């Protein structure tokens, strides 16, 4: 199993541009998550999904959108990139119950 | 609202010394507590969770409901323990995790 994969690894955007961060898992997990990691701030939940077709906001959803059309994929969309969205983005997935979340390798995004 | 606090952003110890990473939480109910670790240039991974009561890589953590704490301990730190450590909390369903700010542990030779 590849686990949780994310693309791209790095990206530089100009202010106002848009992009989609891709996330795929091959563990047939129902739950999927998007976090951002900022120095000294820990991980903040952006959006999450409890299954295909169901998404919900986390702590910091503004400026982002998600969709979950399949169990495997959970893309994160930035519509109008802003410098405040410079961060490292992690995708994660989890099976049913209070169990371990499996994380992807992260995407380092810089908005200038 | 649920909240996790890790009071130390940076912690530095010498090899062979005991280490304790502090974690305090607030939650109205019975929480599930976890420690995640991120080694340099690697993805986050689960270190341990309180429901399994395991010792992983020599680390242990005890849930103290009276003090609402879940401190991570190791009696003899090793250089390979240098990493970022995150304490995290979820409700019984486990649908969402709330992370603390993280503690960067450095173990000096």
Oligomer: heterodimer
Largest interface: A-B, 24 and 24 residues
- What is the alpha-carbon Rg of chain B in Å? 13 Å
| Unreliable segments of 5+ consecutive residues of chain A | none
Query: What is the helix/strand order of chain B?
Result: EEEEEEEEEEE
Gap between N and C termini of chain B:
41 Å
Secondary-structure element order of chain A, as H and E?
EEEEEEEEEEE
How confident is the prediction overall: mean pLDDT of chain B? 91
Largest sheet of chain A: 7 strands, mixed
Helix vs. strand class of chain A:
mainly beta
Overall outline of chain A: globular
**Number of separate helices of chain B:** 0
Write up this protein.
The complex is a heterodimer of chains A (112) and B (109). Chain A is an all-beta fold. Chain A has strands at 4-7, 10-13, 19-25, 31-38, 42-51, 54-57, 64-66, 76-78, 87-94, 102-103, 107-111. Chain A has no helices and eleven strands. In chain A, the strands form two sheets. In chain A, strands 2, 4, 5, 6, 9, 10 and 11 form a seven-stranded mixed β-sheet that branches. Chain A has a four-stranded antiparallel β-sheet with strand order 1-3-8-7, with no helix packed on it. In chain A, a hairpin with a 7-residue loop joins strand 9 and strand 10. Chain A is globular and about 40 Å long. The N and C termini of chain A lie far apart (36 Å). Chain B is globular, with a radius of gyration of 13 Å. Helix content of chain B is 0%, strand content 43%. In chain B, a hairpin with a 7-residue loop joins strand 9 and strand 10 (98-99). With 109 residues, chain B is mostly beta strands.
Give the helices and strands, then pairings.
The complex is a heterodimer of chains A (112) and B (109).
Chain A: E1 4-7, E2 10-13, E3 19-25, E4 31-38, E5 42-51, E6 54-57, E7 64-66, E8 76-78, E9 87-94, E10 102-103, E11 107-111
Parallel strand pairs in A: 2-11
Antiparallel strand pairs in A: 1-3, 3-8, 4-5, 4-9, 5-6, 7-8, 9-10, 9-11
Chain B: E1 3-5, E2 10-14, E3 19-21, E4 24-26, E5 32-38, E6 45-49, E7 60-61, E8 72-74, E9 83-90, E10 98-99, E11 103-108
Parallel strand pairs in B: 2-11
Antiparallel strand pairs in B: 1-4, 3-8, 5-6, 5-9, 7-8, 9-10, 9-11
